[in-house]
């Protein structure tokens, strides 16, 4: 249902009164309601402190763009979410390009939800990531997280390189059982191997899906080393890997199997 600006404002007013709300699905269409109404809805969430499940999508029809108003909304959302101490399931899909400071503010807010069990996050970054990037530095606080789904897009056309350093913090999430990771940018050998090494330390992982759209300068031996790291995960049941822009032989399936004797499904493909 598409709301008018007045209806969206009324919704925001109603949300402010819903102090006992525990579950909410919310779709905000940027082309359908004005900025004031969008901001009112995001701000209204601050009173829903008993929230256990929140699914919120910010959708854009047409080309992606950066918006200062969107940045303000994401910062406000991060501040509100950190108050949800009972939050267990969170989905945020965001179609607008955001800067590094905004993403840090949002993710730091999410990281305060230490009871979070499932996180599904889609973000479009304005700039490329580098070794000093601190966007995911607080993720290790999510000690109860079992399911992590990430779609990360780098919008910078001339430098779509770098890799989110989330892999440095994954092994701190002791209960992590499932990770779905989709990365729309270019990564190289070092980043790929480091990511594999970090996943190999996540001893409770059972399900892994990796979609890497552009893998450059890795080589067969690099892919084999990546496979070796994933083969260290003893409790792994399902492993799905799709990689793009690779013009070479991919490792044999046996290279992905070593200590993970429980593996029941393995799919390695090129896209």
TrEMBL record:
This is Kinase domain protein. InterPro entries: LRR_dom_sf (IPR032675).
